[in-house]
Design goal:
heterodimer; A: 132 residues; alpha+beta; Alpha-Beta Plaits; four-stranded antiparallel β-sheet; 4 strands; 39% helix; elongated; B: 125 residues; mainly alpha; 30s Ribosomal Protein S18; 4 helices; 22% helix
């Protein structure tokens, strides 16, 4: 089982009911192909960084899908066929997440070893020029 | 004419200040807003000589914030690391460490692909 993020952009002039219907339809498609949509995130309308199909904004939808390559292929095919979809991107995320997790663990270990009395809070560096 | 920086200098007059010394550049003039906080000045006049002492080593933002993963969806973060032409900022300017720059590179390219970031800005883009 792999985890993917599939993000796609719908035409901005698509009525909400239709957008919802399409999302629903895609979810069913995933289910039909032996996968599972674990997260649906509608970002709503936001500007595109460049024009796509003469549109300057789009409705972004993010799926998180669990399934194999077959599942993804089917989902991508459906998305590409669907008319209101301007663009799509799918990214496999399980490996990256695992890696990030590992790094986090490593760091925690290191921190724990460094200060033996294990200060749970950890004093943050006092005067970093916090610009963000 | 430092006491009147906003005067619309007539063309031809005041021939002395197309290239004023860097010390005279107030914080609000010259350069865009988002040039700030990105390490040493980019490009501008003055050339590479003589400014070396001003450079202080910037630490990697991602290391400071202990981010293990750079998300392509996070335009706010990623957008800081592209220049105003949409190009990826080099490490020597942003101060990002090599492992994070590699991740950042991938994230920016993904973001471009899904129209969260531009491929190019300006002239014909």
């Amino acid at each position: 089982m792999r985890t993917y993020e599939v993000i796609f952009i719908l035409r901005p002039d698509l009525p909400e009911t239709e957008a919802d219907a399409l999302v629903e339809q895609m979810q069913q498609g995933v289910a039909g192909a032996g996968g599972r949509v674990t997260k649906v995130d509608k970002w709503g309308k936001r500007p595109l960084a460049y024009r796509v199909a003469r549109q300057r904004e789009g409705l972004f939808v993010l799926f998180e899908v669990e399934g194999g390559g077959e599942t993804l292929r089917e989902l991508e095919r459906r998305l590409k066929v669907a008319e209101p979809v301007l663009k799509l991107l799918s990214v496999r995320v399980d490996l990256e997440r695992k890696r990030a997790e590992k790094h986090r663990h490593k760091r925690e270990h290191r921190a724990a070893r460094r200060h033996r009395p294990a200060p749970a809070g950890g004093a943050p560096a006092a005067e970093a020029p916090a610009g963000a | 004419m430092t006491d009147n920086p906003t005067a619309p200098a007539p063309a031809g007059g005041e021939a002395r200040s197309p290239e004023r010394p860097p010390a005279l550049r107030g914080p609000r003039e010259g350069g865009r807003r988002d040039d700030r906080g990105r390490g040493p000045r980019r490009g501008g006049p003055g050339g590479p000589g003589g400014r070396r002492f001003f450079r202080r080593r910037r630490v990697c933002k991602f290391c400071v914030e202990k981010m293990d993963h750079i998300d392509y969806k996070d335009v706010k973060v990623i957008g800081q690391f592209v220049g105003d032409r949409g190009k990826i900022l080099p490490r020597r300017i942003s101060g990002v460490c090599a492992p994070h720059q590699r991740q950042l590179k991938v994230a920016i390219k993904r973001a471009r692909n899904i129209a969260l970031l531009p491929f190019a800005v300006g002239r014909g883009a």
